[in-house]
């Protein structure tokens, strides 16, 4: 009975395993066939231990299907960030597989882990070299990519040979991969620089837009200052800008910017010129309802003000600017910023006006990119604010904007403020003051102060608005208001009595140290205007001196010294001065003690010092100049935006964003004092055009000589691979039935060789014309029924003549 039960249990287990295998096989077949409802990729992301243990077995299997499953599972693990380098030896063995799909997956894996396992990757070098001659262009490209990714200096000559071979490949994709391998080879072995520069020089002749972008990237990495290589191809690069891919366009624009700053003179030698359109548009609203005579006078004034001698640009300089213009409509923000960099650093100021609209268009993207664009706009607005006068509403702050975007927009608004738009900007800033975010309100108050200092005519209006903010219950808002009012009062001069007295009344309410220090400074600076109230203000400050912040203590000591200097015989002020100096003498802060010691020697001379002063000793000469020291006129502060610190860096660079030079940053060169020789770009005829519209690529397919393809002298081409290489490069080639190589002296006349019309075709056309003439004569002579028969016979003869092979 027990045996029967055990047999039944084993039978049930075997049946369960069999059903599981059958179901798994059905699922796999459904995935292979691609039935609807089957997830073909989700199975490879299964990271269970059982699946991971089967990978090694699948990689060692002889079945290509199991190898594919194992490799796909490894690639899925790599995409999830899991380290699967332990399978490197098992994967390398499959590099010789005859299945193309398996080799593709193996190369993807090797690209990821070749740097971590260089010794094991060296075992497959021979396979990589063999795959450089594979029929599949993807295999050739991936073989070079993996081989250049092995970071072992010993194989740098092999990598260089592979690059030279792939540079002459018929596929532009393979040549692009070769261009990408050049920087890797250079970083691996810098001694190969000369050979790599020669390869780059050859790749610059390529007319494929796929290849030329990667070539420029390699040029920027290996030899960014070798502009002599760019001279013959400068105009070609300008004309190919719109055909390059987006990242190739960015690299090309960066190269052309450095080239232009090195080869062209300053397009704005007389300074930044404000375009007439910008000036007229700013005055258009005011002159709309005015008399026509007034409009004409204002227009004449604007023209007189904007008259600056126009500088004639070099033809190649103008070509670069015109070639970049269509790229402002690119959907890639990096391309638009690269064009903006050229127009800002290299173009005349009139041309730079075209930047505003494309940059404003980019502000509709996500907030990170929006912040970068706004920062660049703010940097440009510091030196050329007229560019963005017409897009004022685009920089208004929205409720959904982040803090860093809000602050940047405020910087832009204060940079582009003028007499024409000051009312709109101040009206907008007044709404921002009502925001519940107190930090944003403080930034807005600072912006109001900057607007008042930029346009002094609106200082009184700004002052009234800031005075109303002094009633706020928020200490931060009050402190910022007092700080801005202090700057504005310095601009106004001596007409500050009522404003200072109103600020002095806040000493009983405000507790912010910065606000209290600014009030005491204003009282001391303009104490002559408020001589009646100044002693009482000093009394309030001395009363709570020990509880004040250090910043406030400094200003109380200075106020006491100023009042003593102006009122030397006033007993109350002298007692207050002596009292506050005694308090400061024992303060915990040594800076305050030093300040008190200095002011004591100036305002309270001892008896010994008095005797020395009577004897005309120069030791106490400072006391005689006390008023000039303490009450000298202070220049109004100059507010500089944080964006001005970024102006010294290249527009759009990361160093400009962080406001300091980063590793790898190179500033753009200065303009030359004299115009370099423009004839270096005058090439008689481009190398690619010198052999006609089609260039036969011989490298990698046999001998380079012309004789090798026409050994029998008959002019027949033994192979068509050379012509297929021409088609791969994107040129239209007409294959004649019997091409002939004609000699012009000792050299071959290639123009005759590639001529679309051969001698045989001319002979054929002459025969056709004679046949046509005979047909017309027969039609005129014969008018009976034989006329149709003769016509049919002549048609048959003509058709037979066309089908006959040509003879020499």
The average pLDDT is 76
Number of strands: 2
Query: What is the overall shape?
Result: elongated
Q: Helix count, per DSSP?
A: 39
Spans of at least 5 consecutive residues with low confidence: 30-39, 279-308, 685-767, 769-776, 778-808
Largest sheet: 2 strands, antiparallel
Q: Taking Cα atoms only, what radius of gyration do you get, to the nearest Å? A: 42 Å
What portion of residues belong to β-strands?
under 5%
Tell me the span between the first and last alpha carbons. Answer: 101 Å
Order of neighbouring strands in the sheet with most strands? 1-2
Question: Helix content range of the residues, please?
Answer: 55-70%
Domain Clathrin/coatomer adaptor adaptin-like N-terminal: 50-603
Pfam families: Adaptin_N
Region (Disordered): 283-309, 707-808
Keywords: Membrane, Protein transport, Transport
Attribute tags:
single chain; two-stranded antiparallel sheet; mainly alpha; protein transport; transport; AP3_beta; 58% helix; Clathrin/coatomer_adapt-like_N; 39 helices; 808 residues; AP_beta
Topology:
Blueprint: H1 2-33, H2 49-59, H3 64-79, H4 88-92, H5 100-113, H6 118-122, H7 125-131, H8 137-149, H9 156-167, H10 172-188, H11 193-203, H12 209-222, H13 234-239, H14 246-263, H15 276-282, H16 292-305, H17 315-324, H18 333-345, H19 356-361, H20 367-383, H21 403-415, H22 422-432, H23 438-454, H24 459-469, H25 475-492, H26 497-504, H27 513-525, H28 534-543, H29 550-566, H30 571-585, H31 590-603, H32 607-614, H33 621-624, H34 626-630, H35 654-658, H36 721-728, E1 743-744, E2 747-748, H37 750-753, H38 759-781, H39 786-803
Antiparallel strand pairs: 1-2
Helix pairs in contact: 2-3, 3-5, 5-8, 7-8, 8-9, 8-10, 9-10, 9-11, 10-11, 10-12, 11-12, 12-14, 14-18, 20-21, 21-23, 22-23, 23-24, 23-25, 24-25, 25-27, 26-27, 27-29, 28-29, 28-30, 29-30, 29-31, 30-31, 38-39
């Amino acid at each position: 009975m027990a045996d029967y039960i055990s047999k039944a249990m084993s039978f049930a287990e075997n049946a369960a395993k069999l059903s599981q295998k059958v179901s798994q096989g059905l699922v796999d077949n459904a995935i292979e066939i691609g039935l609807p409802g089957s997830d073909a990729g989700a199975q490879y992301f299964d990271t269970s231990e059982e699946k991971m243990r089967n990978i090694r077995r699948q990689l060692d299997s002889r079945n290509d299907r199991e190898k594919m499953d194992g490799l796909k599972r490894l690639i899925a693990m790599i995409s999830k960030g899991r380290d699967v380098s332990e399978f490197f030896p098992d994967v390398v063995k499959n590099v010789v597989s005859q299945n193309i799909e398996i080799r593709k997956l193996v190369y993807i894996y090797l690209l990821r882990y070749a740097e971590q396992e260089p010794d094991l990757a060296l075992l497959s070098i021979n396979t990589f070299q063999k795959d450089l001659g594979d029929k599949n262009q993807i295999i050739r490209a991936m073989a070079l990519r993996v081989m250049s990714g092995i970071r072992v200096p010993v194989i740098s000559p092999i990598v260089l040979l592979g690059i030279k071979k792939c540079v002459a490949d018929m596929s532009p994709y393979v040549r692009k991969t070769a261009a990408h391998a050049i920087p890797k080879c250079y970083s691996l072995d810098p001694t190969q620089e000369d050979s790599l520069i020669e390869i780059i020089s050859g790749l610059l002749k390529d007319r494929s837009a796929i290849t030329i972008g990667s070539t420029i990237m390699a040029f920027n990495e290996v030899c960014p200052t070798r502009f002599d290589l760019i001279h013959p191809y400068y105009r070609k690069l300008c004309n190919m800008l719109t055909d390059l891919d987006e990242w190739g366009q960015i690299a090309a624009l960066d190269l052309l910017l450095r080239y232009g700053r090195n080869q062209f003179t300053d397009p704005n030698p007389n300074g930044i010129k404000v375009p007439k359109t910008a000036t007229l548009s700013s005055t258009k609203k005011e002159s709309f309802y005015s008399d026509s005579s007034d409009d004409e006078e204002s227009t004449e004034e604007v023209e007189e003000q904007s008259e600056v001698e126009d500088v004639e640009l070099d033809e190649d300089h103008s070509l670069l600017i015109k070639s970049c213009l269509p790229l402002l409509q690119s959907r890639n923000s990096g391309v638009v910023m690269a064009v903006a960099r050229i127009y800002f650093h290299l173009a005349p100021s009139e041309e730079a006006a075209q930047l505003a609209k494309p940059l404003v268009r980019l502000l509709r993207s996500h907030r990170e990119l929006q912040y970068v664009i706004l920062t660049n706009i703010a940097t440009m607005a510091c030196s050329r604010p007229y560019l963005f006068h017409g897009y004022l509403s685009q920089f208004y702050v929205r409720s959904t904007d982040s803090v860093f975007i809000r602050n940047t927009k405020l910087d832009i608004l204060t940079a582009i403020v003028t007499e024409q738009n000051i009312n709109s900007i101040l009206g907008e800033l007044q709404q921002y003051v009502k925001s519940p975010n107190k930090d944003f309100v403080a930034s807005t108050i600072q912006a109001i102060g900057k607007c008042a200092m930029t346009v002094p005519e609106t200082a009184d209006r700004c002052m009234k608005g800031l005075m109303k903010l002094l009633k706020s219950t928020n200490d931060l808002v009050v402190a910022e208001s007092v700080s801005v009012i202090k700057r504005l009062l310095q601009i106004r001069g001596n007409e500050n009595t009522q404003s200072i007295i109103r600020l002095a009344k806040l000493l009983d309410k405000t507790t912010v140290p910065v606000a209290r220090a600014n009030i005491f400074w204003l009282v001391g600076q303009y104490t002559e205007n408020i001589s009646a109230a100044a002693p009482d203000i000093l009394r309030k400050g001395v009363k709570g001196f020990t509880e004040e912040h250090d910043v406030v203590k400094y200003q109380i000591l200075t106020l006491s010294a100023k009042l003593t200097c102006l009122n030397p015989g006033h007993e109350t002020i002298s007692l207050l001065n002596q009292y506050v100096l005694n308090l400061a003498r024992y303060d915990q802060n040594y800076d305050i003690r030093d300040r008190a010691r200095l002011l004591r020697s100036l305002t309270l001379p001892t008896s010994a010092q008095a005797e020395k002063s009577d004897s005309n000793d120069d030791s106490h000469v400072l006391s005689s100049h006390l008023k000039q020291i303490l009450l000298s006129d202070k220049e109004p502060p100059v507010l500089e935006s944080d964006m001005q610190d970024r102006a010294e860096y290249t527009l759009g660079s990361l160093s400009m964003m962080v406001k300091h030079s980063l590793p790898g940053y190179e500033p753009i060169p200065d303009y030359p004092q004299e115009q370099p020789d423009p004839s270096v770009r005058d090439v008689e005829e481009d190398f690619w055009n010198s052999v006609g519209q089609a260039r036969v690529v011989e490298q990698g397919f046999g001998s380079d000589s012309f004789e090798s393809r026409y050994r029998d002298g008959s002019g027949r081409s033994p192979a068509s691979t050379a012509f297929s290489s021409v088609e791969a490069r994107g040129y239209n080639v007409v294959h004649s039935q019997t091409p002939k190589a004609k000699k012009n002296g000792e050299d071959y006349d290639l123009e005759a060789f590639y001529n679309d019309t051969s001698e045989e075709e001319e002979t054929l056309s002459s025969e056709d014309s004679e046949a046509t003439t005979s047909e017309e004569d027969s039609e005129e002579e014969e008018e009976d029924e034989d006329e149709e028969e003769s016509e049919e016979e002549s048609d048959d003869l003509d058709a037979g003549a066309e089908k006959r092979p040509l003879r020499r």
